Amino acid sequence: MSSAEPTLSPTPKSEPARFPSLASLRAAHTELLKRHREQGNEPAVLAEIEQLMWRGHATGAVLDDEDDRWTAQGLLDYWSSVLYRAGQVEPPEATLVDFDPALAPDLSDELCPYLGLEAFRAENQHLFFGQQRLLDRLLKHLETNRFLVVVGSSGSGKSSVVLGGVLPRLVAGALPGSENWVYYALLVPGDVPLTALVLRLIPAQVATERWVPRQVKAFRTDPFHLLKLVTPGESEGTERRPVVLFIDQFEEVFTLCRDEEMRTALVQNLINFVQDNKTQNRLILTMRTDFESQFVKVPELLELFEVSHIRTMALEATELREAITKPAALVGLKFEEGLVDELLGDVLGEPAALPLLQFTLLKLWDHRERNRVTWEAYQRLGGGRLALAKSADEFYHSLIPEEQVTMRRILLRMVRPGEGLEVTSRRIPQSALYRAREAKDRVERVLNKLIQARLVRLTEGQRPDDAQVEVAHEALIRNWPQLVDWLEDERVALRQRLRLTAAAEQWKSKKRDSSTLLRGVLLAEARGYEDLSELESDFIRASIRAERRSRNVLLLMGSAVILSLSATSIFALNQARQAKQQTATVEILEAAARSKNWVTTTNATLGLALAISVTDRSQQIAAEATVPTVTGSLLNGLQTAQEQNLFQGHTGSVLSVAVSPDGQRIVSGSEDQTVRIWD
User: In what order do the strands lie in the sheet with 654-659?
Assistant: First the structure.
């Protein structure tokens, strides 16, 4: 058989098994090239060459990239010439078939290489591309410095470069010994940063209900408590393993935390943690550029900030290209020719280029055709600048009118207007979205839809009622015109609304001290809000009760003063008989208090109580002019007092009251035939 003519495979009549990709064709080519060099034109080798050519020819159906097709065609041409030189009269077809989109591999949704508005995490670090320059700077800084503040505008990738770049590299040993360091979970301060920190440090098998408040109290009194918690029970001379803490959105310590004492305790503990001479602890913070001036409030931290901060840089076109193409290559996703360049032109130079780019890429993935992103899908989205706004519009208009109202209210609760035109997102408890006059199931339904549309992010807490919600990214606040219009309409109202939230939180932090309650115009304004959280409702009710008590006290004092002054004016008509009239008044009051048959009318009782003794016509005229005035003032106070249920104890309406000339005692008479005396 060895001397016979080579037996080649017959020309396939049915569709041959193609290579799944150019990489597979290339690998087969390399292996066959090695064998051909070793064995020459042996029949078995020639048969394999022919088979490779048939499969390579068919592989053209899945190659849409022009460069890939040129490469594949070059390989086929090479083997065609080998067969021709070996005496093959009719070599297999050496021209790639046309690309057929229907034959491209269908990528699973689980392979999605883009995150949208979410920040990168350690679990998707393999998809993190495009910020290598910044990543190298941060790691170099941490090699010789223990404190790092990453400062940048919203959307500049601060959180992602730390979570998806710095921390995974440190865990992998990017710095000497860093693979053995102790790493705690990400911390976002919120409005109670000490509690948030304690929850990150809680040991396993510890009862949270008792341990957390005890540790928070210790933080307030001991500026070294953090150091003690993260390095417990180590004997003298034992080298402590460095601990790494990462606090994201550190500006919340200043913008959300209203407790000055808590803020000071946190900062002092962090400074001592990072400056401890016995360890090489690392503290990493991220902070928005527009809030870095807040460090002025803490001089000790400002001094460290000035030598430890690194600013994020705008990504260059090559870096943005990497962020698009390298994650796509990992899963076999392809872009139609020219589409990547168009996408780069859309977002390059945008303040929030990264989140806009990631959101657009995520939507393009959702609209892909098998393994390809098409121009049609890109144009349907509106391009890189409009993809977010258009998607939000489509989502909003897909809701029924009642749900649209709820969506508007939910999103407005998640933003915080600044002093100027700046608006920032704010994380709030999920429970704060519910209100008495709106169906809870509708709120939950709309919220779940927002989360599924990736417009809102939900963060689970230690307990179900600890769940927090926030806008997925501030890029939504700046780039969705509908939300921008809502904010413009509600800017003043939002500031006033947040003033109530801040006051309620302060009341809670001060252990419900009555001096922090609302009064007057502020209370009247607060009573007009409908979307109240449980804390805000309690706060307003307490404020109403306190104001009611104050008003009742003022009412009695005012009535007493008015009557006392009026009585003094009347008694001035006859100073010679004043002492006797006062004595008579007191006796009358005491007699009235003992009486069981008070049936006189209000005016008569008032006249009696004031003991106006008229002996001549002139005094009678003066009394007739004065008594109605006194009576009118008292009756106004009497009506308010009855509305507030001040005269408790009577079973009927209070028909009359009398006040002693010295303003020290009041007697009330009721239609139930009872009389009560009040001090």
Answer: 654-659, 666-670, 675-678
| 62, amino acid identity | V
Per-residue pLDDT tens for 451-500? Answer: 888 888 887 755 556 677 888 877 787 778 888 888 877 766 666 667 77
Neighbour count for residue 26 (Cβ, 10 Å)? 15
User: Which pLDDT tens digit goes with each residue over 361-397?
Assistant: 998 998 888 888 889 888 888 777 788 888 888 899 9
Burial status of residue 359 (CB atoms within 10 A of its CB: 0-12, 13-18, 19 or more): buried
* Cβ-based neighbours of 398, under 8 Å, separated by 6 or more: none
The torsion of the CA quartet 243, 249, 254, 258, rounded to 10 degrees, works out to -90
Q: Could you tell me whether strands 282-288 and 147-152 are parallel, antiparallel, or unpaired per DSSP bridges? A: parallel
Total-model pTM: 0.61
pLDDT at 141: 93
Residue (of 498, 490, 496) closest to 426 by Cα position? 498
**CB-based contacts of 401: which residues, under 8 Å, 6+ apart?**
none
Could you tell me how many residues make up the chain?
A: 679
Find the largest Cα–Cα distance for the chain. Answer: 158
Burial of 557 (0-12, 13-18, 19+ CB in 10 A): exposed
CA distance 637 to 617: 31
In terms of C-beta density within 10 A (0-12 exposed, 13-18 middle, 19 or more buried), how is residue 290 classed?
A: middle
Q: Classify residue 572 as exposed, middle or buried by CB count within 10 Å of its CB (0-12, 13-18, 19+).
A: exposed
3-state secondary structure of 283: strand
CB neighbour class for 155 (10 Å; exposed up to 12, middle 13-18, buried from 19): buried
Q: In angstroms, what CA-CA distances link 321 with 229, 353, 443, 544?
A: 44, 12, 40, 60
CA atoms within 13 A on the CB side of 321: 9
Residue 199 near residue 260 (C-beta atoms within 8 A) = no
CA distances from 544 to 505, 524, 536, 558, 595 (A): 17, 9, 12, 20, 37
Q: Which residue, 68, 481, 425, is CA-closest to 251?
A: 425
Helix (H, G, I), strand (E, B) or coil at 150: strand
Question: Using CA atoms, how far apart are residues 655 and 160, in angstroms rounded to an integer?
Answer: 74
d(CA 302, CA 290): 15
CA atoms within 13 A on the CB side of 33: 10
Round to whole Å and give the CA distance between 90 and 92: 7
CB atoms within 10 A of CB 44: 11
- CA-to-CA distance for 554 and 551, rounded, in angstroms? 5
Query: How many Å from the N-terminal Cα to the C-terminal Cα in the chain?
Result: 130
Q: Which residue has the tokens 């088979």?
A: 51
Q: How far apart are CA 655 and CA 652, in angstroms?
A: 9
Q: What is the 8-class DSSP label of residue 14?
A: S
**Are β-strands 666-670 and 654-659 bridged in parallel, bridged antiparallel, or unpaired?**
antiparallel
Query: Tell me: the pLDDT tens digits for 559-612?
Result: 555 555 555 554 454 454 555 545 544 454 455 545 433 333 343 333 334 333
What are the residues facing 650 on neighbouring strands? 648
User: Which residues, including other chains, have CB under 8 Å from residue 579's CB and lie 6 or more apart?
Assistant: none
Q: Which two tokens stand for residue 63?
A: 């190659």
- What token pair was written down for 98? 């046309």
Q: What is the spatial distance between Cα 36 and Cα 40, in angstroms, rounded to a whole number? A: 5
